[in-house]
Amino acid sequence: MGELLDIRRIYVEAGAAELPRGKEILGRWPEATIVEVESHQRIPELYGDETNVRRWVRIKREALVVGVKKTMTARPNGRSADFIAPSTANGCAMACAYCYVPRHKGYSNPITVFANIERVCSYVKGHAGRQGRKAEPNECDPVAWVYDIGENSDCSVDALISDNVRDLVELFRGLPDAKASFATKYVNRDLLDWDPRGRTRIRFSLMPPADAKVLDIRTSPVGERIAAIDDFVAAGYEVHVNFSPVVVRDGWLEDWADLLDQLDAGIGAAAKRQLAAEIIFLTHNRGLHEVNLGWHPRAEELIWRPELQQVKRSQNGDLNVRYRTGSKGGYVHALTGLIAQRTPYLRVRYAF
Ligand code: SF4
């Protein structure tokens, strides 16, 4: 944990400091300097110079923000989950080159954790209760309503900071028609003791190690993520894999074949029986590309490939890029074909 987090300065909203969860978090780092802030969303000193990687990695490691989540919503999703649960954190101590989270929150993007977890839990419980039983199977899950609890953060790392994620995992044990889910790039073995009783799905993100080395900065190595799968299944989690982002480059399919072989060799029969995958090809963004050029141009050689990509202006005016429509179907087909060959038990929930 020392490598990833060494909290020295905690920015806290007064309302959060008074809550039991806020007190617990502050109590975990008694040596840290406490800075009271009016709003967890406006802390200019945390933004820093976007290309000063040393500064923002330091901020990620040393700063923590504790706030109160104001609005509760469960946004319909329909792909990896039926709903996006209200977040209990945002920001991340890791620093993947393609991550979209910093686009919204300033590049250093340290973890903000919300102290009003009881409100989040009671909202989720009420929302799930109102859905009743799921009438039709869909690509999220055949029977349960799936709630993504980690859209804007990595729950395995959040669990190093507070019991928020554990509270949610325990809540979902008792919700008969709903299931929690989150994608992760970090192996936190503390989660193995939480007894999730099959009601939480962890999606380990995987990509060929050659790509991860350049793109997945500060995360657990891909081999360590694969090696954790059996243990998480034995501990009562449903474990899926998240192939994302898939990066097209010379030799990409050969490297994916090797990764699938590594996955196949690294997991046992119990994991294979329940395994499924989601596949998401890379999307990128011009603003992020420009930031990355300032600190990590090697990553951009991999993920900024105008000859393969097309640009689309998003609703908020950002220029997003993705692989060209004409070729993308072929890439998807090639990768799903490889899966059918190398890991035929691996059900593909969706691929795009
Ligand atoms: S682990 Fe997830 S949230 Fe964290 S930097 Fe990587 S992509 Fe972003």
TrEMBL record:
Pfam families: SPL (PF20903). InterPro entries: SPL, Uncharacterised_Spl-rel. Keywords: Lyase. It comes from the Bacteria. GO terms for molecular function: 4 iron, 4 sulfur cluster binding; DNA photolyase activity; S-adenosyl-L-methionine binding. GO terms for cellular component: endospore-forming forespore. This is Spore photoproduct lyase family protein.
